[in-house]
Design a protein that fits this description.
By secondary structure, the chain is of the alpha+beta class. A 3-stranded antiparallel sheet has the order 1-2-3. It has a 3-stranded antiparallel sheet with strand order 6-7-8, with helices on one face. A two-stranded antiparallel sheet has the order 4-5.
């Protein structure tokens, strides 16, 4: 890079490499650098585990496990007795007679409990767990909801608990949307009944799942409630439609 000198040179000095090193050392001594501090959002400055916590226990019965899993989530109450009172997850325990997966279950509960106690927005855990897939394939739980893995169902349990304590809010459907879904469901069932009489097997499937036997999996709510109506795929559970 060429620099044009417009003024007369009155003096000059040659800077040697050792002079640069000495100057850098001198500036480091004069202005010591502070160690970078991580921004960790603590739940409270002096938060300690109380003697008693309130919580809920959920049962998970999966075809991938011989015995059921019992998930217990305990909450801590912040700002008790004030208008800002709030329940937040504080720890989680998973118990089962099946000891084959004891190591990863203990590791998972300890990590989740540590994240809960750090505070901040912990709702991201739900999506992370629900995105875990089992290479052997998933399964359908009661109601026709598809679970890609047992870890995903644990995430669904945590999501349900967070909804119960008000940490996660579902987008509520309007009365018009509910009426539209009920109307479409009635129309689909009437059309199916006119075409053919339901066999006993189909009737049992319809009663247990709560949706028509010909329904497929909805990509939005993971429920077997997607039916073809008027040339458009429509979900009878959440109202999702590919046609908008």
């Amino acid at each position: 890079m060429t620099i044009k000198i417009a003024k007369k040179i009155k003096g000059y000095e040659v800077v040697k490499p050792e002079d640069k090193a000495a100057a850098a050392a001198q500036s480091a001594v004069e202005q010591p650098k502070e160690a970078p501090m991580a921004e960790v959002i603590q739940m409270h400055e002096s938060l300690e585990r109380p003697e008693a916590l309130i919580g809920s226990t959920f049962k998970i019965k999966s075809p991938l496990f011989e015995h059921a899993l019992y998930v217990t989530i305990n909450d801590i109450v912040l700002n008790a007795g004030t208008p800002y009172e709030q329940r937040r997850p504080f720890e989680i325990f998973i118990n089962s007679k099946n000891m084959d997966h004891f190591q990863w279950i203990v590791a998972l509960t300890r990590i989740l409990s540590a994240v809960f106690r750090k505070g901040g927005d912990v709702t991201f855990i739900v999506e992370e767990l629900k995105a875990v897939f089992d290479p052997r394939g998933g399964y359908f739980k009661a109601g026709g909801v598809y679970m890609p893995s047992i870890v995903a169902e644990i995430g669904a349990v945590i999501e349900q608990h967070m909804k119960n304590i008000g940490l996660i809010h579902d987008p509520e459907m309007t009365d018009a949307q509910r009426a539209l879904i009920a109307e479409k469901r009635a129309a689909y069932e009437n059309a199916a009944q006119k075409k053919t009489e339901l066999s006993p097997t189909d009737a049992d499937t319809n009663d247990s799942a709560g949706f028509p036997p010909g329904a497929t999996l909805c990509a939005k709510c993971n429920t077997k409630a997607l039916v073809l109506m008027d040339g458009c795929q429509t979900c009878l559970n959440c109202g999702y439609s590919k046609c908008g």
